[in-house]
Amino acid sequence: MAVNLNFTGPTTSIRIVKEATYGTDPGTGYAALGVYQAEVSSELTTDNESIYALGARAAQSIVGKTVKVTGSIRGVFQDATLLAFALGCDAVDGAGPYNHWLNYKTAEATSVEKFPAGFTMVVTRGTDNATYDIVETYTGCRIDKLVLKGGLDAPLQVDVDFIAKNVSSNTSGNQTASFSSDEVHPPQKMSFELPSATAISQVQNFELTVNNNLNPVYALGSQILQALPARTLEIGLTGTVAFTDEAVWAMKEITNDSSAAYTFPSTGATSAPKTNETCQLSITNSGATTLERTLQVNLSSVAFNRWSTSAKVDEVTMLDFEANIADFTQTGWGATPSGAPIKYINNTAGTYVGTTGGV
After folding, report:
1. pLDDT tier at 51 (50, 70, 90 boundaries)?
2. How many helices (H) does the chain have, and how many strands (E)?
3. Would residue 336 be called left, alpha or beta, if left means φ above 0 and alpha means ψ between -120 and 50 degrees?
4. Among the ranges given (134-143, 218-227, 293-302), the one the predictor scored with the smallest mean pLDDT
5. Is the distance from CB of 142 to CB of 118 less than 8 angstroms?
6. Which of 42-56, 118-132, 247-261 has the lowest mean pLDDT?
């Protein structure tokens, strides 16, 4: 008999593990997600189709087609686990603290993709009576889109949208909640540099979007997803700064005109967008040695394509900007073990995503 026990957020937990083979649950090694989760959502559709026939108004049959499993995770950034699953992790070096070098390309041949095989996610939904707990296992998860969000009103946030191969549920094997030991990254420890090493003042917020454009592949003989390759990599950046005399850089960037009287199309040598800028996002807790927690992201060929302002009688004028980014870059790191464009520093020796090790 049903007892109407409710599932709630405080009784829901998430743990993940790296898959050696896409779509295959390793069964052990589940670890923290690297995010203080505020929300996890999931959706399963079977893409049913109603079959009709002459001589009747009602459907004569309902046929299930492809199974689609999607979801999202929203929360406060703790460590680089989700970033590593979105891009890949080449190497770990150092010792207390450790450098985690994230890169979607191999070091040996930068044209070869190094996208992670995938991960299994276990979601345990608990009640006041463990007999009625539900454990959902999502296999073949890959991150389609990841967004890092920084602003004045909250620590660094991370949102991801994922696609899974399949999902199953049972009432055993539940996982208890587990969180990374890394600290959150508050707004007073964030900086925005353009070009790299040139800090932009009075930044209000930013969003960095990484879109893998995953392409679900199905095949005759099965309803289940067979492969999930990544297509073109899209990187976008938006933000807001207080409109000061320094912020005129945004207008000059989009017009590619360094003169005081900037115009568009540029009156200079070219009217093409300026694309040779590099940009660095840096978020740190300023801790020393084993207490350091730092995320640094290097971006190359930054091309600004929009700025907008609105002056109001009782407010400081703000400037919103938007940019397309061609790629990540290792410029500014000097010698690195992998030429990786993203570095995360913490006191964890294990790799996040790699050919060996766990998350």
Report:
1. very high
2. 2, 18
3. beta
4. 293-302
5. yes
6. 247-261
Count how many Cα atoms sit within 13 Å of the Cα of residue 197 in the half-sphere of its side chain.
3
Check whether the bond before 195 is cis (ω within 30° of 0).
Answer: yes
Q: 174 falls in which pLDDT band (50, 70, 90)?
A: low
Q: What is the DSSP string of 327-342?
A: EE--TTS-S-SS--SE
- Encode 204-273 in three state secondary structure: EEEEEEEECCECCECCCCCCCCCECCECCCEEEEEEEEECCCCCHHHHHHHHCCCCCCCCCCCCCCCCCC
Task: Output phi, psi for 86, to 5 deg.
Answer: -80, -30
**Confidence at residue 252, expressed as pLDDT on a 0 to 100 scale:** 61
231, 249, 286, 317, 330 from 300: Cα distances, Å: 19, 17, 25, 29, 9
Task: Specify whether the CB–CB gap between 123 and 14 falls below 8 A.
Answer: yes
Contact 253, 269 (CB under 8 A): no
pLDDT reported for residue 357? 33
- Residue type, position 20, single letter: A
Q: Taking Cα atoms as reference points, which of 213, 212, 141, 196 lies closest to residue 359?
A: 141
Give the E-state strand segments of the chain in sequence order: 12-18, 35-45, 49-51, 61-63, 68-77, 89-94, 98-102, 119-125, 134-151, 154-164, 166-170, 190-193, 203-211, 234-242, 277-284, 294-310, 318-328, 342-346
Specify the DSSP class assigned to residue 165.
S
Name the percent of the chain in helix, strand, coil, to the closest 5: 10, 45, 50
pLDDT at residue 264 is higher than 60? no
> What pLDDT, on a 0 to 100 scale, did the predictor assign at position 348?
77
pTM, to two decimals: 0.85
Instruction: Read off the pLDDT of each residue in 173-180 and give the average, rounded to a whole number.
Output: 66
Q: What is the pLDDT of residue 108?
A: 42
**Residue 117 contacts residue 18 (beta carbons within 8 Å):** yes
Rounded to an integer, the average pLDDT of 228-250 is 82
Question: How far is 274 from 300, CA to CA, in rounded Å?
Answer: 12
The answer to whether the CB of 186 falls within 8 A of the CB of 107 is: no
Cα angle, residue 344 at apex, residues 162 and 152 outer, rounded to 5°:
75
Q: Supply angle C-alpha 296, 140, 158, rounded to 5.
A: 30
